[in-house]
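So, does this match?
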Amino acid sequence: MNGNMNNKVEQNGFQLTPLEKPAIIRKKRKWKIMQETGIMWSSVVFIFLLWYTVTKLNIFSEVFIPSPAKTWAAFTDLLVNGYKGNSLPYHLLDSLYRLSVAFFFALITAVPLGLISGYSSKVRAALDPILEFYRPLPPLSYYTLLILWFGIGDLSKVALLYLAAFAPMYIAAVSGVKGVLEDRIHSAACLGANKWQTFRYVIFPSCLPEIFTGMRTAIGFAYTTLVASEMVAAVSGIGWLVLDASKYLRSDIMYVGIILMGVTGILLDRILRKIEVRAIPWKGKD
C-alpha cells in the first residue's frame, strides 16, 4: 500500500501514477502547440484585416498599397498568363534552382572544412584570414566582379550565393566542434575508441545542432542575397519580377512577388526544421 502511494506523483492537487504522467505531459504539449498556432494565425488575420481596412478607406493610393482583391487578381493573372513570356512557377523555380545549387555546394564544402578547422587549429589558422576578410563585405559589393568573371547568367549568381551561404555554415561547424565537452571525448577514449570513431560517434553528432542552426542562417542569408542579385542582373526569377514590375508601377505584381518570397522563405525554414527534428531527436533533451 505504501509502495503504491510512493509511486504516485502530486500534480495540481491530483494523484498521478508514473504511467499517467507522460500522458499529461503530452496533453500539455499539444495544448501549448494549439495555443501557439492560434496566436500565429490570429496575427496573420489581424495583418490581413488591417491591410483590407487601409485600402477600403482609401487612406493611400493603390499605386502604393493595392487592395487584397487587386493583389489576388494579379496573382491569378500571373498564374494564367505569366509575366514577360514566362509563367510564375518558372520565375519561382528559377530562383529556387539557383538557391538550391549554391546551398548544396556550400553544405558539402563548408561543413567538412568547418569540422576539420574546429579539430585542427592549423587548418583554422589558414582559413580564418580568408573568411574574415570577405565575410563582412556586403555580397553585392563583389557581385560586380563575379559578373565580370562569369557573366550575368546563373553561374555568377550561384557563386555569389555560395559565398553568402558558406560563412554561416563554416562558422557553425567550427563552433560545434569547439563546444564539444571534453568529458565525452575522454570517455570515448577510455572505452577504446580511436580518433575516427571518436569523431564519428561523439564529435559529429554533438555538432549537429550547431550545424543545423548554421544551415538555417545560411539559407535565409542566401535567399535575401539571391533576390538582391536578381534585381541587379537577371532576366528571370522572383526578384527580377518584382524589380521589373516596379518600373511600370505595378504594385499589385510587386506585392505578389514579395508575398511569394516571404512564404517561400518560411517553407524553406520549416523544411530544415523538420529534417533537424528527424536527424537529431535528442536535441534539447540532454
In short: The radius of gyration is 25 Å. Strands lie at 9-11, 14-16.
